[in-house]
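Hi V.,

Quick status before I head out on leave. The structure for the redesign project is tokenized and pasted below; the design run finished overnight.
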């Protein structure tokens, strides 16, 4: 998918493809990487051998996260959105800080480790689910270009935090880790405050069918990742600090920053599949089924797909006004369950030795089948701006208003196809149809001064119109006072 295909001078500013403002990520939006760092330190990484881990805290943490995410999905109409509820931020921070304290206390009071592990996992799973939904809600307020820039930069920033934290002695590691949840949530509050009121999550509600195609796409990759996850933690890096994840995140960030809207996002998943093939077939032939090369490729591929699913889900919320709590709650819950199933499958094959020496290869081939199926699902879509099967269901007046927004987006997409508009021109067309000024369009799309005017001029030329009123007539819209 090409987010933008500018004219000769469009997308350039002082000789650069995008303005410096587009290259710089506001620090507040990097807080997503901060909570990722917390997860790796406390529950799924290789920093500290917490005595509390003698009980199955990882599984309990995951299932509590799933239950919380799906619970928020069921209650989304009544509890969302989160951005304007200080109580949610306070509850989330308190749960995560308490979870951190309990895990580290087990290092100094080993005799109480088993008693501390269970409440730590419960609090951690509950708090991290809320944090994930808060950040998902924030990213759903952004256009795809900003989502790609900020999300990929956050992944790299989180890894940097982890690399720095590796140098702390245990008391300092405890103190600094306890600060991470509050820091992440304060950054989220700051990021929400930086958005114009019109871009904040809608407080209206509409019933919406689940875009299962997108959910199952990520679930297939999560299953493949879960199959190999155990071996990936045997090295010095955890899932969020793995070199493969960092390299892919930086490549996506630099690609978007340097190419601007002309970056082809389909390259992300087109590169991810070969990485998986290398990780699961070619590398094992040389005896490194779960070696560093395979781990690098698999972590890179999974990171690429995480970026793609964030783009897909956030774009559905951004374009059609879907509740991020509802949509991401479903996706995160399903993803975590399927990843757990992958881990259990791999453990069963290894412990039961049902396939003998061929067990590792069988697991690798099973993972490969899963990710090939997932990529096939994605490649069947025309582009990443699709609705992915999500549609409005019957509802009240709020549903009617959001349905009209969806109909407008569908009408713009139809016009774009008929007149062969680029993907970025289609996005500008939709913003024009929403009565947004050129200045607002430039701010929302993070493009240089004059670029939006160039897009509008090209759109008018292709549609053979000259005024905004003619555009409204073409879209069968009533002008707004």
């Amino acid at each position: 998918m090409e987010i933008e295909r500018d004219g000769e001078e469009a997308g350039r500013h002082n000789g650069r493809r995008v303005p410096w403002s587009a290259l710089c990520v506001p620090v507040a939006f990097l807080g997503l990487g901060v909570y990722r760092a917390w997860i790796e330190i406390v529950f799924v990484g290789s920093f500290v051998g917490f005595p509390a881990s003698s009980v199955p805290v990882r599984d309990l943490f995951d299932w509590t996260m799933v239950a919380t995410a799906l619970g928020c999905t069921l209650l989304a109409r009544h509890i969302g959105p989160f951005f304007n509820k200080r109580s949610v931020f306070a509850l989330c921070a308190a749960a995560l800080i308490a979870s951190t304290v309990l895990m580290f206390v087990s290092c100094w009071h080993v005799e109480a480790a088993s008693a501390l592990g269970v409440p730590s996992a419960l609090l951690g799973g509950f708090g991290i689910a809320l944090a994930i939904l808060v950040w998902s809600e924030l990213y759903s307020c952004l256009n795809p270009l900003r989502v790609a820039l900020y999300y990929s930069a956050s992944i790299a920033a989180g890894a940097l935090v982890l690399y720095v934290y590796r140098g702390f002695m245990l008391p300092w590691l405890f103190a600094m880790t306890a600060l991470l949840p509050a820091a992440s949530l304060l950054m989220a509050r700051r990021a929400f405050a930086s958005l114009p009121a019109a871009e904040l999550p809608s407080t209206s509600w509409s019933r919406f069918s689940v875009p299962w195609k997108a959910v199952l796409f990520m679930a297939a990759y999560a299953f493949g990742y879960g199959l190999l996850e155990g071996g990936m933690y045997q090295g010095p890096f955890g899932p969020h600090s793995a070199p493969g994840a960092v390299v892919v995140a930086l490549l996506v960030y630099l690609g978007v920053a340097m190419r601007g809207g002309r970056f082809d996002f389909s390259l992300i998943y087109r590169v991810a599949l070969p990485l998986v093939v290398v990780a699961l077939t070619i590398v094992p032939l040389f005896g490194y089924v779960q070696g560093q090369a395979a781990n690098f490729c698999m972590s890179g591929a999974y990171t690429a797909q995480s970026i793609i699913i964030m783009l897909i889900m956030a774009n559905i919320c951004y374009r059609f006004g879907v509740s991020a709590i509802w949509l991401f709650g479903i996706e995160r819950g399903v993803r975590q369950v399927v990843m757990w199933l992958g881990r259990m499958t791999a453990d069963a094959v290894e412990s039961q030795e049902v396939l003998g020496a061929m067990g590792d290869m069988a697991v690798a081939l099973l993972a490969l089948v899963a990710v090939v199926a997932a990529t096939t699902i994605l490649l069947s879509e025309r582009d990443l701006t699709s609705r992915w099967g999500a549609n409005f269901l019957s509802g009240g007046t709020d549903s009617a208003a959001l349905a009209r927004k969806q109909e407008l987006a569908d009408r713009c997409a139809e016009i774009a196809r008929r007149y062969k508009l680029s993907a970025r021109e289609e996005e500008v067309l939709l913003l024009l149809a929403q009565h947004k000024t050129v200045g607002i369009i430039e701010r929302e799309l993070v493009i240089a001064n004059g670029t939006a005017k160039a897009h509008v001029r090209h759109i008018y030329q292709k549609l053979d119109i000259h005024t905004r009123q003619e555009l409204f007539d073409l879209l069968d819209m009533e002008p707004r006072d």
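Above is the designed sequence. Residues 292-320 form the longest helix (29 residues).

G. will cover questions while I'm gone.

Best,
W.
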